[in-house]
Amino acid sequence: MLSKLKFLVFASFIAAVSANPVVRNLILHEQRESIPKGFVKIGSASEEQVLNLRLSLVSSDAPGLENALYAVSTPDSARYGQHLTKEEVEEFVKPSQDSATKVNAFLASHNIQAKSISPAGDWLAFSVPVSKANEMFNADFSVFKHQESGTQYVRTLSYSIPTDLQGHLNLVHPTVTFERPFSAPVVSSPRMSIPKAQNVTTLASVPSSCDSEITPACLQALYNIPDTLATQSSNGLGVAGFLEQFVSEDDLELFLESLRPDLPSSTTFTLQTLDDGSNPQGAGQAGLEANLDIQYTIGVASGVPTTFISVGDTNSDGQLGGFLDIINFLLSEDNPPFVLTTSYGFNEEDISPSLASVLCNAYAQLGTRGTSILFASGDGGVSGSQSQDCTEFVPTFPSSCPFLTSVGATAGITETAADLSAGGFSNVFGIPSYQASAVSSYLSELGSTNDGLFNTTGRAYPDVSAQGENVLIAINDGGELVQGTSCSSPIFASVIALLNDRLIAAGKSPLGFLNPFLYSSVGANALNDVTSGSNPGCGTNGFPATTGWDPVTGLGTPDFAKLLTAIGL
Ligand SMILES: *[C@@H]1O[C@H](CO)[C@@H](O)[C@H](O)[C@H]1NC(C)=O
Ligand SMILES: *[C@@H]1O[C@H](CO)[C@@H](O)[C@H](O)[C@H]1NC(C)=O
Q: How much is the average pLDDT of 399-403?
């Protein structure tokens, strides 16, 4: 059996709410069938508690944006590489005058002044007490607790919108989305002193030590990554940070001294903050995830200007609020980084489908402007972001969004799929055309294995993979081996950032949204196909890796030298 529909959207009954000051007809807009697994309801939310609500307005031309994304990202298109400007993208995204007028009239009728929180004006934010929010949206805002973490959220299992806003308002957030905090890489070793590097000129062959311990030198040898410094100052690699994960500058220095002694000693990152994010350096404040993500971008993408974007907690709306804020923040920049890597995510079923779509479209906007967006696929094999009990496979988000590149994990120097590598098929997004043929070949080879446990019509992920086990990082002045797709995404992102450096030096556009290129035969042939291993979960062996694309390792791992040829350099 495929998963029971967990959300009901646009059900067709009309609830008349007799509220002051204006009587409006409301229609049910989004509803959850039940409280999601892992959460309990504690009780009603206090009437006076203030909610920071956000409204997403329908874009004036979403299909136009998607067409533009593919036109500039598909290698045989006449417009390949002709990325759009901020203003050009905003033309597609901004709500129509009609939508803006209707939504503002609704808010005005409740004496609410909202402020725009996205550059195109498609997101509005305002604060109201729970009592008012319940009345405006016929909702039942209550307090729910995530049992494992103890985190409490104010959410409602359903809400309605005025009938005249249908087709104008995508969603109200936070309402029916119950995101749970996601993912840190797992330490797989006792603490150790961090060894001095094998000499870090690109090795002719991969040393056998790389089988038990991955370092930047191992990746250079395995993936033909150059150790020469990038030259282009307009290039940029962004690393997203959430969950109060901070990068230790001392650990970075130790890491580079030990494992990249050839890099200039001044090599570091730029800090950007939003939502009161920060990067404190006190004892014990270094985050495993943040240290990993920065060490395996700066330590691999030699000389590429790298930014750590620390998203704080003042969005007062859980991690999803931070995800919305970072993408709107980057969309508001004139020169966002050409590559963005994020090692955090969610199980798709926790996020409302309309919210997932709106976020996915925001990634499409940044892709259309020329940014390659990479996300770790998750660490639970077919059971999702983390290993968990399940009776059906659990897709992850944002990896299930077709407008970004999802990165799974491999292990060993004769690369095999890492068991933990999350992969599978979306229940929200359909199969994009760039992967239709690769996925259909896989499914016919798979036959009836795992029948009924996943959605054969969904967007399939990951797209690619990179090393994700026994990765050596420096933390708290020592070394640790970590594992997770959290390792893989920064590594793959670094290869893309180095390719962009060469492209910019040659006067060409950066790669932007990668998938149409990666799935082309030229792109796929420049990757190392990984054909063994699988991603067990939910009481099954998961999906087997095979020749060609598979939902464990995607198309495979990078080969910088082959990719350079594939992009015509
Ligand atoms: C490492 O490189 C340095 C400087 O290039 C050289 O002096 C040294 O002999 C090398 N060590 C090994 C073990 O190859
Ligand atoms: C399967 O995926 C499609 C998207 O391709 C979606 O429309 C459909 O609802 C999904 N089915 C289930 C049972 O989730």
A: 98
